[in-house]
């Protein structure tokens, strides 16, 4: 059984980390159910384990939190649906790569409910949207923007951290970092793409697609 939590107020980052760490420990010990937490943070940047200092281009703009999740710099803020997944990967196939692919597929299937085609790119973590309405890249390829970021950590085979989907954040807030260390591509959101989607719409889609991707817990 997976518990779903939806927070209506902005959640301070450290408060979220403390909750996730405690919950992951409890899940690993068999003392708590798995959990998916849907929330928003106040504006902030997080630095993952692969973050490079030059990629924080405006260090005084928002608070910066150093975190032990995988990945590089990421922005979180109002209008972005953060999805923290505290799931027992050990009982869901014991395969980290498969689990990350499931997270990617979950986002893709969720976006598909809004007739939006999310795609995966080799060497670029996250979910991407082709932008034929924008000028082509220097190499002549179709422009692409990132709509969702993914970064997890495991504790005794229980995941925490997770994904973030840009619903209607202030995209200018991403300019203080090089998102995920990638300079050649931009960032977009559902609303930026002209879709009148609310956070509640996204939550409904996430819940509907979850079981299709992750299935039942394997004891």
Automatic annotation (TrEMBL):
Cellular component annotations (GO), alphabetically ordered: cytoplasm
Swiss-Prot/TrEMBL catalytic activity: octanoyl-[ACP] + L-lysyl-[protein] = N(6)-octanoyl-L-lysyl-[protein] + holo-[ACP] + H(+)
Cross-referenced CDD domains: LipB
Keywords, comma-separated and alphabetical: Acyltransferase, Cytoplasm, Transferase
Feature type site, description Lowers pKa of active site Cys: 146
Subcellular location: Cytoplasm
EC number(s) on file: 2.3.1.181
Binding site for substrate: 69-76, 149-151, 162-164
Extra remark beyond the main annotation: In the reaction, the free carboxyl group of octanoic acid is attached via an amide linkage to the epsilon-amino group of a specific lysine residue of lipoyl domains of lipoate-dependent enzymes.
Family: Belongs to the LipB family.
Identification of the protein by name: Octanoyltransferase
Organism: Thalassovita mediterranea
Gene of this entry: lipB
């Amino acid at each position: 059984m997976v518990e779903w939590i939806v927070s209506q107020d902005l959640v301070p980052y450290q408060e979220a980390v403390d909750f996730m760490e405690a919950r992951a420990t409890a899940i690993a010990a068999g003392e708590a159910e798995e959990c998916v937490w849907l929330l928003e943070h106040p504006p902030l940047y997080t630095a993952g384990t692969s973050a490079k200092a030059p990629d924080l281009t405006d260090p005084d703009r928002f608070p910066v939190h150093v975190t032990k999740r995988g990945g590089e710099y990421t922005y979180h803020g109002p209008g972005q649906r953060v999805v923290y997944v505290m799931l027992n990967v050990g009982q869901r196939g014991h395969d980290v790569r498969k689990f990350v692919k499931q997270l990617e597929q979950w986002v893709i299937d969720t976006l598909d409910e809004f007739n939006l085609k999310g795609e995966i790119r080799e060497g670029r973590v996250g979910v991407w949207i082709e932008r034929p309405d924008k000028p082509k890249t220097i190499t002549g390829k179709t422009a692409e923007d990132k709509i969702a970021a993914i970064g997890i950590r495991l504790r005794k085979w229980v995941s925490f951290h997770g994904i973030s989907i840009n619903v209607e954040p202030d995209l200018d807030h991403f300019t203080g970092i090089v998102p995920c260390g990638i300079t050649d591509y931009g960032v977009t959101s559902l609303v930026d793409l002209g879709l009148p989607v609310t956070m509640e719409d996204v939550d409904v889609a996430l819940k509907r697609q979850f079981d299709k991707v992750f299935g039942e817990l394997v004891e």
